[in-house]
Amino acid sequence: MVKLNSSQLVYFGAFIRVCVPCLGEIIHPSSRKLNFEIVSQPSVRQAIPMHMAPGISRTELYYRRPRGRRAGLKAKADESRRRFNIPVVLSSRPRYANSSLLRPANLNNLSFVQPKDKPARSQPLPTRHFVPSIMLSNPMSLQPKLSEVEEFLLRKNIQIGCVVESWLKPHISDTVVNIEGYNIVRKDRLSHDHGGVCVYIKEDIKYQIVEELMCCDVHEVLWIKLNPARLPRGFSCVILAVVYYPGPTSPAECDAQLILNHLFDSLMKAQSIFSNCGLVVTGDFNRLKTHRLQNHFKLKQLVKFPTRGQATLDLILTNMADKYAEPESFPPFGLSDHVTVIVAPKVRDAADNTRMSVTTRDTRESKKVSLGRYLCNIDWACVYNQSACEEKLNIFLQIIQIGIDNIMPERTRKVHPKDAPWMTIKLKELIRSRQEAFHADRHGPVYRFYRNKVNKERKACKGKYYTSKVQDLKGVNPREWWKEINKLSGAKKKSSNLMNSLNVPDFAEKSPKEIANAINNALLEPMLSYEALDNSSEDLYLPLEDTDPEFLEVSTAQVHKNLMHLNKHKAAGPDGLANWCLREYADLLYEPVTNILNASYQEQRLPSVWKRADIAPLPKVKQVAIPKKELRPISLTASLSKIAEDFVVLEYVKPALEKTVDPNQFGTISGSSTVLALISMIHSWLKATDGNGAAVRVLLFDYRKAFDLIDHKTLVAKLKMVDIPRSVINWIINFLTDRSQRVKLSNACRSEWGSIPSGVPQGTKLGPWLFLLMINDLSPPSTLFDLWKYVDDTTVSEVVKKGQISFAQQAVDHISEWSGNNLFQLNREKTKELVISFSHASPQFPPVTMDGGSIAVTEKAKLLGVIINNSLTWNDHVEELVKNAGRKLYFLTQLKRARVTPQDLVAFYCACVRSSLDYACAVFHFSLPQYLQTELERIQKRALFTIYPGLSYAEALVEAGIESIQDHQRQLSINLFCAISENPDNKLNKLVPPIITPNYNLRKTRKFRVPVAKTKRFAESFIMKGAQLA
Questions:
Q1: Across-strand partners of 836?
Q2: Which of 267, 675, 745, 735 is nearest to 500 (CA)?
Q3: Fewest Cβ atoms nearer than 10 Å: which of 5, 376, 831, 985?
């Protein structure tokens, strides 16, 4: 028996792992309990925590034996599962009068108690997310309905009760409206009648009124910080805002924009002061438009049913929507006309603790040197002496594969997909200790000790990881720096495991191999109606020129350059030859590769492995129910095949097609982009409707699986008309024949090979250019129509002047006829019509039909990444920009917590957040009203407030060395206009107004003769405004 003084026991449980670990090496293996008797002194009795009071005789505390440095893996695993139970006996006097037991504790006077067997662990019951349940009600006077509210809160076990229109006044005491078991927080209306908000908070939840967020008495908003006993992982606290907006007609004057500004500023401060806080903004909003607030702060509105009549006035906005179940409505209290709303925590899904099997090779520098020595000793004459390129390539691949398999054999290891890169063994041990202490006593000092210890250690680990492994990469290896920064920010890539996205009932009972085969068959099914090329047909290939036929021949220098520019991070194709290997040993491999490529060009055919593709299906939706419609096949072809295609494209295909390409094609070819296409469209539509009452009918055509459903015979016929050597045409024709594909779900799970009778593979060098050739002869039926193409995106517009009839059906019939002749398949469900008109009375046009059905008319559509609506305003697009940028600001907060330097935070913001705001900004910047400019500016304001919390926005701009969003986008737009006007070959140069040549020396002259615009819309378009500012 070890006797300890009670002064030595204070917080003994928190330090037991430090005090007693040495005993684990010496105590008898058959015993695991140590019995301590404590001699308590009255003077220090009060220092013992409440849960260790004399009324409790024993308290079980646990500790682990330390793991030795030289212990084996099995021994470490065993030790991590063991527990030593240490009952601590508390008493006010010694249990035994024997003075020999009162001598100081040492290893010789320990007595051992055999541990009791632990009961078997039962199956865990499903648990709910650790978020508080919330009630929202507008009782229209709380005091008369208090008993009804009290009964409801207690019966439903509500943790947070939010009441708006409490109608309480400051002279009414809290005791009048108290509810047993709850604390009440109020904000009463000081002037006028009615109004007021209050919150009932269960007594076991710690709370605090956040004075920093309370601005004035004008806004009836109550801000409270909640600290429940437990919250979902990743959230530090909950910031609750209870709002009552009486509406603009209320006697209590309250401007909608003022309260929105208050909510915006307060939420921005809350996220800065309380990092990783959960947000709940609830109350009676009386039709206040909160969508911009939701976009900025990633809030989701939970209440989907009417709360007063047919209107949804009572809202619950939160960034923890995935933790809550669907809201429920209950009858109003008393004679109120607002229903009562409850949201409860959702049942949690079972934790996924599965480990992933990853196949890797040992690519340490020593192994690479060994492989280099092996390749140095190879006599490549065995490749040169073969007559056919097929045999040359097979021997080349076998030689490399033998070396890699022997020097760098594949090894399979299991990793936990959720382990963060900064996670250490020490931090894992602390987390495990915290969990044990939590389950033992969630309110005790042991749990609090380990909770604080884990938080401190996690921040230290993140900071140390950035300082030691990430910070210096910025100048040395920017790619790796960005990779590690993304890890620190918590930005996770979409899961590469397709199995998690499949929701196909037929797949439930199938093995992974059968699922892969089913997906491959589904992807190939639409192609079965096409006839494959017959490689043995004499008419398929062109005869070579009679005299001196021209063959493509590449030099060793060209091949070496291409090998050195390969992306070493790209996956290998069906041949298994990785890009990193070709690039690492380019000096040793460029000669045999050159020999293989030239042999292929001479034979006008490709090795069979170059015509195979591993398909990586990418889901178009989160849950895939119909694989052939909701999966996008991306082809992974052999790296050497891509090099061979690259030479064909650069030497012959690209120069030939750029001479004959449709000027309205803005895809693939150099000097074109989506931004130029959008500027051309918007300028044309604004000019056509400039104060003349005209309307524009815009038809957005969509092709079903455009790249996959291309008829090879039609493509070959068009290819034979191109002015390139016949040997190259024959090589491309052979590229299209006998192609096959298989679906790759993982390295160990691939489908069977399936034949491809149509299409051009996505992910190849030739694919986009062959599609460009296929669609090049698509043109509008007459001068009444304008047509724009960006690869497969086809847009046709018709200007209908006031009082005239529309001929849009003629354009649809023409394109449908062309598509049928070329065996393209138009998708009527995804083809849309947009009618742009600025008349007071919207024009009514007869519907256009296609394939026996009408084309749907829409008010807005996404065109080349920009949302266009029928009034050519930018509210919808800016709303989408703000929503996407608001999500990314969370990552900035995480990097700040990881102690990333302010300079690097600014770099991350500019690259990942501001860049999304800058896309196609020239299209809409000059047309944005001030309130939309403010919405974009708020994104940058929030970002800089996170990086430099103590500075004003103007000071933060100077410190960061960046411009405001408005000035930045203005300069980008002017720069683009100057680039267009100074380049005569630019596609949009013809839209630029003529240059003024003044006859006199004037103080201030305009460079361009800008035409007079009848409307402000057209005057503020990109071309018109750019010409004024340039």
A1: 696
A2: 745
A3: 985
Tokens of 779: 């043109």
Task: Please name the helix (run of DSSP H) or strand (run of DSSP E) that holds residue 33, with its range, or none.
Answer: strand 33-34
DSSP 56-86: --EE--EE-PPPPTT--HHHHHHHHH--EE-
d(CA 266, CA 260): 10
The tokens describing 600, both together, are 């292929």
**316 bridge partner residues:** 282
Please tell me the number of Cα atoms within 13 Å of 363 on its side-chain side: 8
Tokens of 14: 């928190």
| pLDDT tens figures, 298-325 | 899 999 999 998 999 999 999 999 999 9
Other Cβ atoms closer than 10 A to 640: 27
Q: What is the pLDDT of residue 58?
A: 35
pTM score, two decimals? 0.75
Q: How far is CA 445 from CA 37, 48, 64, 625, 1022, in A?
A: 21, 10, 19, 51, 65
Q: How far is CA 766 from the centre of its chain?
A: 30
Q: Give me 455's structure tokens.
A: 């938080």
Q: pLDDT, tens digit, for every residue of 356-400?
A: 667 788 888 899 999 999 999 999 999 999 999 999 999 999 999
Q: CA-to-CA distance for 896 and 894, rounded, in angstroms? A: 5
Strand 860-863 vs strand 866-869: parallel, antiparallel, or unpaired?
Answer: antiparallel
Question: What is the tens place of the pLDDT at every residue in 858-906?
Answer: 999 999 999 999 999 999 999 999 988 888 888 888 788 777 889 889 9
pLDDT surpasses 70 at 151: yes
Non-local (6+) Cβ contacts of 662 within 8 A are 776, 777, 778, 779, 789
All residues at 6 or more sequence positions from 447 whose CB lies less than 8 Å from its CB, including other chains: 434, 437, 438, 440, 441
Per-residue pLDDT of 931-955, as tens digits, reads 999 999 999 999 999 999 889 999 9
Cα distances (angstroms) measured from residue 352 to each of 81, 355, 356, 416? 21, 9, 11, 10
Sheet holding 2-5, edge to edge: 2-5, 36-39, 88-91, 58-59
Question: Which residue type occupies 169?
Answer: K
pLDDT, residue 104, reads 42
Partners of 834 in beta bridges: 698
Cα distance between residue 221 and residue 195, in whole Å: 11
Burial class (CB within 10 angstroms; exposed 0-12, middle 13-18, buried 19+) of 938: buried
**568: Cβ contacts below 8 Å, ≥ 6 apart:** 578, 579, 580, 583, 584
Detail the DSSP E strand segments found in 662-718.
695-701
860: part of which helix (H) or strand (E)? strand 860-863
Give the containing element (helix H, strand E) for 397: helix 389-407
Alpha-carbon span 163 to 138, nearest angstrom: 6
Beta pairing, strands 88-91 & 36-39:
parallel
Please calculate the CA angle 433-436-441 and round it to the nearest 5 degrees: 120
Poorest-pLDDT segment among 449-463, 713-727, 749-763, 770-784: 449-463
